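Methods — Computational structure assignment.
A single polypeptide chain was analysed. Its primary sequence is given first, followed by the predicted tertiary structure written as structure tokens.
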Amino acid sequence: MTERHDSLLERRERIRARYGVSEEAPAPTLDDAPASKVDEAYYYASQWRLMWWRFRRHRMALISIGLLALLYLMAAFAEFIAPYETTTRFRRYQQAPPSTIHWSDENGFRGPFVYAVEQERHPVTRRVTFVENRETLLPIRFFVETEPYKLWGVFELRHKLFGLGAAGEKARVGIWLFGLDSLARDVFSRTVYGARISLTIGVVSVVLTFVLGTLLGGISGYFGGLVDNIIQRIIEFLRAIPQLPLWMTLAAAVPKEWPPINVYFAITLILALLNWVGLARVVRGRLLSMREEDYALAARSSGASDSRIIISHLLPGFTSHLILSVTIMIPQMILYETALSFLGLGMQPPAVSWGVLLQDFRDILAIFHIPWLLIPAFFVLATVLLFNFVGDGLRDAADPYSGI
């Protein structure tokens, strides 16, 4: 009895430590230990509640999912956050460096402001440089009034999150957080607008990939026979083709005269149709082993339909792998779109994505003269890392019984 009592107490402490259950409850005795509040919360909690208890212990995943939410909010409200349109040009300021934000001058604290910028030509190299005109101070305003524009093409607004307002228009300069490109367009505004395509194309492609992979893989693994042979031969044929040349070929086949929205969905379909095969093979293999389990046979004998057995009984058995696959595939899709657009085979101007913005870096001289054009690449890198951290947390949370 003493050994049983000790084991129950140790198990209670492990559960408390794993799920953050309060320790204020009185220590259970031998008789009431199996029905203690900790054990009761553990035994009667739903699967999703157990997953949440486990996920919230992964601090990096929580931080990452918050940062990803900010990125997607930035993409959703790009018209409001970006101070300028993607086609707005500041003539005579081509390749101007990022604006320096000041908070005080010789008169003391003034709040955030920038100075007007003037051109100078280096006497030796003859290169154009930009210097601040300390006599013209331009305060940065929040919720500044601008020309009317439409949010999501529906709601008409007249204010931006920040900007210089009428003072900037009078001085014919702006606030350029990431500098200007070779056509004198604001890189920050274009990066914000580019997030809308780069971030959503990954999600849409993964949704299509997930549906195709789980559907065809589930049918192949559950029914077997002729259907399994046909699906597996298709998968083997697609896997035998080198993926990168195939992507490039299909992307190059998209007509250049198509509008950006058509090219967007074409690239999305190409990425989805070529990435479902790996997930389908995994789903098939798991269903082949799980369809003969006792609970699957019991469901079949009780009259449950095949679709119900697959969706309600078999697929939840490897939810952790499906979640991990989805969180890994989203950054992969973003990288594929960025690579194709960088090579000129994906999205094309006037569409704006992170890959399109990096096209200027195909010139090696740009690395030395205008390095701020590489900033969109850091957004791609950060997004991939954040999705990987979230995937680690979700993978651990999907198996809440491990380590108990």
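Note: Confidence is low (pLDDT under 50) at residues 23-35.
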